[in-house]
Amino acid sequence: MPGADKETDLTERIEAFLADLKRGGSGTGPLRGSGEMARETTYLLRRITAQARWSSAGDLMEIIRNEGRRMTAAQPSETTVGNMVRRVLKIIREEYARSRGSSEETEQQESLHKLLTAGELSEENFRQHFVLLKANVIEAINELLTELDGTTDNIAMQALEHIHSNEVIMTVGRSRTVEAFLKDAARKRKFHVIVAECAPFCQGHEMATGLSKVGIETTVIADAAIFAVMSRVNKVIIGTQTVLANGGLRAVNGTHSVALAARHHSTPLIICAPMFKLSPQFPNEEDTFHKFVSPHEVLPFTILCILTFLSELKVNSVSSPELITLFISNIGGNAPSYIYRLMSELYHPEDHKL
Amino acid sequence: MNLMKLVEYFRTQVRQDPEVPSAVAAIRTLLEFLKRDQTGETILGLRENLTQTIRRLEEADSSVAVSSGGELFLRFISLTSLEHPDLSQCKKVMVERGELFLKKISLSRSKVAKLCHTFIKDGAKILTHSSSRVVLKVLESAAADKKRFTVYVTESQPDSAGRQMADKLQNLNIPVTVVLDAAVGYIMEKVDLVIVGAEGVVESGGIINKIGTYQLAVCSKAHNKPFYVVAESFKFVRLYPLNQQDVPERFKYKADTLKAVEDLAEEHPMIDYTPPSLITLLFTDLGVLTPSAVSDELIKLYL
Fold it and tell me: Within 13 Å, how many C-alpha atoms sit on residue A162's CB side?
């Protein structure tokens, strides 16, 4: 029966994705980089919307929430998966509200105004059935996908406003967004880039090779030299893994030290991060989002005498919003204190905890 | 309606239920006034009577919370009267909505506690200031969640409210130590986080709270400890003080002091202002907010 086939096909796809997620965490699986993970998640959610059995918006949201919970449990350190699930949930709410004919904005957020003027304790239960809802939601998800595709270009387009001739820019490790950003600026301006190699994986080397291929003068430095060189740097531009709800960052190890060094020298710290990296978590809530890897890069397996000295390497560090000057995202530049507003536009408060 | 009777009603509210926030008691009193008021013919007349009542209530209890509750109620009246220009129908709707509003905000303390207790980790040492019922609720939720933590409470002179807080915490079986107000700097290196309540949250995202809070905030900033504020949303008030002197005199001193004493310069203030730069996060029933988000909420309501 075609219906049953679709169901099993869908569950197979979901299981395959979950397995990819579990493997993809160490950087060796097929899903590399948060951009691809976000895209894959959105494709899967679109597929679920199209193929799963649901009659009302409430059912669909329940299904997506359950799948979302499983996906975030498979790889807690990849927050983009959860972010995309929340985006899709918000899309469903908006489309439902639009189908009902009510204005979307006033219904959505909790506010003092709403407390004072609301009629009854009405619980929005999303039970009404609308014929066009499926098509509308899928169309909206397609728009989301187009937005995802264009994020790196949108960020790179803003490069010329921020990078000027003869500047010295510092960056840490390897970030595709920052690479595109710098390459775009290099078309019209001449500047120097100092790349911190970011041990133990030394991704800074790849970054430096990529930049020098387009003719940017690049220097690679060891992590220990960051503070020493900082006095000669005009700007620090880095990427991040996640942007937290208070405007802080969860990024590659060593970012916090760079941020502190930049503050000490009053050097502006600019973060290039697309909107799908914005997550509604706060830094103190869970400590389970630190990723640990084997220490074999630092301490090769052949050294047997040092036993339990170094059992794992933490690869993420958390920075606070006061150290950051500007966030450049695909919708423009924003101050860290404005993040709360962007969050309220992207996610519904009830979806913050999946 | 007799103003004296209303003040009595207010006082009885507070006496009967010591857990009720003073803003809620004020709003309940004003709602009672609305129900009993027979003299008002126009919306403007109603507003005038209400403003008088609020002023009388402020004379009875000069805290910021009563003032913010009163302003919120006035705003509520204006918003409702815009929708229903006919007075008698308007009054009916107002009374209905008022009851609903009271029901909703009675849940706000639990909402705040639910948001905040996840930020308290096992083995945490918490420092709090004076006696706050919201903080008590938060700590109660965290303890109910089987988290182990210890609490330091400042004594908070001149009324030693900290000791009452310590007693209440001991009843909940939470290990608690009372410290001198002067010992805040000394104890700060031991604590992991600071949680305080607020009597009022101002537009800039700063707070008005019992005297000594500002010191606590400055110390925690110096030691890089997170400084959390827990407050319900009806405490948001339309003030924008730039320094301690900008806080209006009528909030700084107790109602009796304001009436009795001629030269206020001789008196000790009961509250102080903590600027938003020292606050890490605010936990309200509208969600977890950064100080910059507070003004957004106020604008949504008042403008």
Answer: 27
CB B256 within 8 A of CB B61: no
DSSP string, A170-186: EEES--HHHHHHHHHHH
The amino acid that residue B46 corresponds to is L
Higher pLDDT, A161 or B286: A161
Those of residues 123-152 in B touching chain A at CB distance below 8 A are none
CB atoms within 10 A of CB B61: 18
Q: How far is B256 from chain A (nearest CA, A)?
A: 32
Per-residue model confidence as pLDDT tens digits over A97-115: 888 876 545 555 566 666 6
CB-based contact (8 Å) between A106 and chain B? no
- pTM for the whole thing? 0.86
Local structure of residue B231 (DSSP, 8 states): -
Q: What are phi and psi of A59, to 5 degrees?
A: -60, -50
Strand partners of residue A269: A236
Q: Quick one: which H or E segment has residue B194? A: strand B193-196
Nearest by CB: A110 against B280, B286, B293: B286
Q: ipTM score of the complex?
A: 0.81
A246 to B103: CB separation less than 8 angstroms, yes or no: no
Per-residue pLDDT of B155-188, as tens digits, reads 998 889 999 999 999 999 999 999 999 999 999 9
Higher pLDDT, A321 or A194: A194
* Distance in Å from the first CA to the final CA of chain B: 31
A115 to chain B: nearest residue by CA? B101
Position A309 scores a pLDDT of: 45
Query: Distances from the Cα of B137 to the Cαs of A220, A248, B14, B104, B172, in angstroms?
Result: 53, 28, 18, 17, 11
pLDDT of residue A124: 65
